[in-house]
């Protein structure tokens, strides 16, 4: 059997008596939530900023409530805990905003971590610890799962939750409310925790839930947007499965094993989301939505009853006429495919299990069914040549089917990340985590030059692919945050395929949008976080957004 690239503890199962006890609790409290009890510890969950931009028509994805934070807050709410979500994704000073909403107002602090918000998490924990040293700090999410040692050794994190968090947070809070942490923490699986002597301990892995039907219906009204003037947006993020059967070198998965909800559970969830929140569009973030033909068709049979439009992620190898027909008939607007590259050696090194022939076949199958095909592409993968990169660019320009392009990122926990450390492209893990917080997915981004191609070649290819974008599925989005920023107006509409969907001048005002960069982000550019050789290979020709922001402020 091939060696798994991710940490082995992620490939275990949450299947003992404690796991089943809390899954039963989730089911029971979903059906009949416990009234909020003000005598229980107050729990605040912070969602911090991300620099990531999204192309025109995809802005809804950046502002939507997302599953991880929603499920954690929902299981605690249903158990009677006073829960608040503090969402500072688009605040001009997210650190101050989060701090002001935490200090004096919570008993336990939870922080959502993701690959590009490490500096925010670290500095927020420092400030909260200085102000309220007795408030325990729990971190969860993809970043802390991938590098728990960094959080336990270099931040004020008290407990790192590894992989899924729904069972673990219920067990942690049950122990905390009873005053038993000193005794219980060594036996609570799936965590790292700090000890009084300043060291930290990792417990046995918990693994993934065996039965996703135990998950509650998501309480989107726990997000602060629900109390805003516009109310919750009708575009949401959801899924029917977790995990991925593939093992791509550049992709990190907190839940690598494939688990799926039943048709009955999916039907209950969709009915809830439609009746309670009036959803009209869903981004299914399953890593490979159509990997199982029978299951895909069954899920589409559920979705088609709710009169929504939707999109999803999948693989080119996992598409055929029966699947795409079911997807089209249930409201699919655009299917996003992880194409990444067309180069044979590139795809082999990345362990994609794909080929140019499979990509072309999937594209034709999708177009023939009357559904839009969305390519996700990467510039700078290992083994890329100028010829293979140019071929990918021509493919994008010919078909005008691109949804997203980005430079290769060395995501913590991945094979690419380990290789970059070994090759000394990464000076230190903390330096790299800091630098990831300024990647905006724009062609002026700095990048780690893994491919060895000239910087100009990579940047020119990126710009050409970026200009080959097609419209996203929600062109009439109405929930733009006040502090959004907009990038790269583009008068070129692309092919008729784009204008027939979105009309003329669809990106004349902007091609991408995002929240503002965190103040002082220029502290984390490559010239400060990498060796001079690494910085010269991926940041010498253009000023990235963090440098531009600093220059604008200085002037």
UniProtKB/TrEMBL annotation:
This is Radical SAM superfamily enzyme YgiQ (UPF0313 family). The lineage of its organism: Bacteria, Bacillati, Actinomycetota, Actinomycetes, Pseudonocardiales. Transmembrane segments: none annotated. Residues 42-183 form the B12-binding domain. InterPro entries: Aldolase_TIM (IPR013785), BchE-like (IPR051198), Cobalamin-bd (IPR006158), Cobalamin-bd_sf (IPR036724), Elp3/MiaA/NifB-like_rSAM (IPR006638), Methyltransferase_Class_B (IPR034466), rSAM (IPR007197), rSAM_sf (IPR058240). Its cofactor is [4Fe-4S] cluster. The keyword Metal-binding applies. GO terms for cellular component: cytosol. Residues 230-445 form the Radical SAM core domain. The keyword Transcription regulation does not apply. It holds the Pfam family B12-binding. Coiled coil: none annotated. Keywords: Iron, Iron-sulfur, Metal-binding, S-adenosyl-L-methionine. One of its GO terms (molecular function) is metal ion binding. It comes from Saccharothrix australiensis.
